[in-house]
Amino acid sequence: MARGLLAQIRTLFEGDPGVRKVADDPVLTAELLLLFRMILADGEVSESELAVFRRICEESFGIAGDSLDAVVEYLQDYGYETTGAQAVAMFQDLDIERRKELARHMAEIAKADAHLSENEVRLLRRTIDMLGVNPADVVKPAG
Questions:
Q1: 141 Cβ contact list (under 8 Å, min separation 6)
Q2: Count of CB atoms within 10 A of residue 81's CB?
Q3: Res 23: pLDDT
Q4: What does the DSSP assignment read for 51-62?
Q5: What does the mean pLDDT of the chain come to?
Q6: Does position 90 have pLDDT exceeding 60, yes or no?
Q7: Alpha helices for 45-134 (secondary structure H)
Q8: What is the pLDDT of residue 6?
Q9: For residue 138, what is the enclosing H or E element?
Q10: 61, 80, 127, 141: most buried by Cβ count inside 10 Å?
């Protein structure tokens, strides 16, 4: 109980740990922005897309589920100041495997609701082109 209280006090003074993690890492911020934009690309936010986003945040980036609402709020605020091209530009100097991972995450979200809209395909195609990733590598399992 005391540990929970200390964690709440720390969060009060230092902010949410998930938001701090995202705010301190511009590449992570850019990736999450692009993933969030993929969720919004078809004009509908489905629970299956959000579930994939949550899973990616937890498994790939170590962002706890209880931080996700605050992280999404941070992304909404930050996202107004950042274009998709600016977000993708953060990845252009990273190794090819990291760029492929971003593209795979975007594809996972696009496919989550079992319907690929034209806008989702266009966003994914444009991002893959900007990242310099072979589209065939996006559909292959990582390995």
A1: none
A2: 7
A3: 86
A4: HHHHHHHHHHH-
A5: 85
A6: yes
A7: 47-61, 68-79, 84-89, 96-111, 118-131
A8: 47
A9: helix 135-139
A10: 127
- Structural tokens at position 62: 């170590």
Other CB atoms closer than 10 Å to residue 59's CB: what's the count?
A: 9
| Among 11, 55, 8, 7, residue whose Cα is nearest residue 35 | 55
Cα(91)–Cα(84) distance, integer angstroms: 12
pLDDT of residue 143: 52
- Other beta carbons within 10 Å of 24: 9
56-to-1, 5, 15, 25, 106 alpha-carbon distances in Å: 30, 28, 22, 16, 10
Per-residue confidence (pLDDT) for residue 5, from 0 to 100: 47
Question: pLDDT by residue (tens digit) across 17-46?
Answer: 888 898 889 889 989 999 989 999 988 889
* Structure confidence at residue 65 (pLDDT): 84
Residue 69: closest CA among 11, 26, 143: 11
pLDDT category at 78 given cuts 50, 70, 90 is confident
Q: Are 88 and 64 in contact (CB under 8 A)?
A: no
Residue of 92, 97, 95 whose CA lies nearest to 129: 92
Question: Cβ atoms within 10 A of the Cβ of 51, count?
Answer: 13
